[in-house]
Amino acid sequence: MKKWLVAGLERVTARTVEQQLRDSSQLASIAAGIGRVNAIANNQRLNSASPLSDAEFKVYSQFGDDGIIQHLITVIGLRKGEDVFVEFGVENYMESNTRFLLVNNNWRGLVIDGSERNIDFVRRHEVHWKYDLTAVHAFIDAENINALIRDAGVTGGIGLLSVDIDGNDYWVWKAIECIDPVIVISEFNSLMGAERPITIPYDPKFVRSQAHWSRMYYGASVAALCHLANAKGYAFIGCNSAGNNAYFIKRERMRDLREIKPEAGYVESKFREREKVDSLDRIRGGDRNRAIAGLPVVNVVTGQAETL
After folding, report:
1. Poorest-confidence range of 39-53, 133-147, 214-228, 250-264?
2. pTM here?
3. Which listed residue, 52, 59, 120, 195, has the most CB atoms within 10 A of its CB?
């Protein structure tokens, strides 16, 4: 057999084995996750005092959010027509908070991202035609978010909203009026601490990578999000174990879920950013806070300008 053909077959075989391993790992994760969901439904694992991290498993989410979401929709018991999600800041949607809902639970959804290349990838992927998914390219701000959602045909009561734009998360969620989600997941910046209700000042053109070299200056504190959630009629129920997503439930839909204070549910993140784009060195521990010390923030309770 010719060498070029042998080499080609070896590459194909290697890719096939790699894909099988990846698929088997994912299937194992799904099986374990479904087992946890069943246990939760039978009150065998979680009670109202259990942390959300007890429900975690990962299939498509960055961390354990797939499991938390499955737990919440099991406990809450969504009503007819609420099997709809909106998620923005999805990049190419290979890793997201809602893809497991789309694939496993057959929900309908809208995803939005600021990169045309990312949205083109989603539209070309089989997930776009196999399921009822709308993918929109747009740079989101507080002024356009309602029109983007309405123009995609999503209004009124939905099951879940996931906000993750690495910047104006607080301001954009505050602006949303066209949908009424039962569950809201919002990214928070754990470097802003557990107690101060602060966020970056609103800038419709904010880009995290341009705002500060560390890429750690973005978003809002969990206390700021809790303040906004309370004004919108939501209760804070905790964070994922990675310390980047906070969870909120409509108060009238809480059932056995327990509301907690920001400082009780706060989780400090451990993930790190590169010191330079072309470097493998990453900032860790207290150096992360020192990197963004002195940068401007807004206290959402008083409206006053402060600094980190």
Report:
1. 39-53
2. 0.85
3. 52
